What does this fold into?
Amino acid sequence: MPIGILTDVGAVFIGTIIGASIKKFIPKYLLGELPKVFGVCSVCIGIMSLIGVQTMSMVIMAVICGFVIGELLHINIHVSKAFSAVLKKITFSY
It folds into this structure.
């Protein structure tokens, strides 16, 4: 019997129920940032499993450093504004 698969499905199901029930108590700004934190945690878990592989861990570290620098400089806001300006020019030029 696939115990591991059933355990994973059960954990996701229970986590979904718990998350849906406490969602109304968590501030909106925190809900927007939580996926980033979970992503970084996943990357860290991946790094820990890739410690034996020398080249891949450098790539992962570069991704983490790029993420941190991008968040500190708010690059996503600047890129969004730039693309919005380009789209407005393209839309109004017709």
Remarks:
- The chain has a mean pLDDT of 81.
- The longest helix spans residues 28-49.
- The radius of gyration is 20 Å.
- The CA atoms of residues 14 and 57 lie 33 Å apart.
